Amino acid sequence: MKIELIPAIDLINGQCVRLTQGDYEQKKVYGNSPVDLAKEFEDLGFRRLHVVDLDGAKSKHVANIPVLEAITTATHLKVDFGGGIKTEEDIMKAFDHGASLVTVGSIAVTDPELFLSWLDRFGADKMILGADVRHGKVSIHGWKEDSSEELLPFLKQYVDQGIKNVLCTEISKDGTLQGPAVDLYAKIMKAYPQLHLIASGGVSKIEDIEELEKNGIPAVVFGKAIYEGKIDIKQLAKK
């Protein structure tokens, strides 16, 4: 496969969890140690990992830094870390504890000048713009609020400023195992073909990933499909 395959680990209280449509009340805890799981991904040949600090997203400050450090110490995975990043100190903390990239979403909506200052300081190769969508609007604060920002114009302001990496989750699909929002991602790529777009949400089988690849999507994040046994991770790693 040419599409970049990025397994995900979502964290609450240091444990691997998955939510459904971002709802903290619909939380399922998986017994795997985050570090052991990360090592398993690396052993299978994956080189990238998406780590989401759900405690951080909810509390608006990073919370699971010790787990990030444990993962990056135990593996050579290229880890992108997001959830609750609200200050430059949060970004520095993530980088200091091993993150290769950070994902920032809410601040890019609520304080564009601050986000652009981070983009300028840390560089486009180290920053991922999180653009999570519900009903066509960009969602913020751990998906608890919908902003007034329409997705494509929101992306344009940052594409024009040099953003390269965008992580887009169609929230209605997330954790549902009902297939990804292929049409949405294809629409983004048609508008901004220069982006390294990471599709997220709804992946339930290897064919979903193949469909994204067929539509020119550069990268995909997947999590629940692994934990629920819908995707044979060993088979996927060989593709």
Could you explain how this protein is built, in words?
The protein has 239 residues and is an alpha/beta fold. Helix content is 37%, strand content 28%. Strand 8 (133-134) and strand 9 (137-140) form a beta hairpin. Helix 1 (34-43) packs parallel to helix 3 (65-74). The longest helix has 11 residues, at 112-122. The relative contact order is 0.15.
Distance between the termini: 5 Å
Radius of gyration: 16 Å
| Shape by Cα distribution | globular
Q: Helicity, in percent?
A: 25-40%
DSSP E strands, number: 13
Give the uncertain stretches in residue-range form. none
What fraction strand?
25-35%
List keywords for this structure.
239 residues, alpha/beta, 8-stranded parallel beta barrel, 13 strands, 28% strand
SSE layout and pairings?
Layout: E1 4-12, E2 15-20, E3 23-30, H1 34-43, E4 48-53, H2 54-59, H3 65-74, E5 78-82, H4 88-96, E6 101-104, H5 106-110, H6 112-122, E7 127-130, E8 133-134, E9 137-140, E10 145-150, H7 151-159, E11 165-169, H8 182-191, E12 196-200, H9 206-214, E13 219-222, H10 224-227, H11 233-237
Helix pairs in contact: 1-3
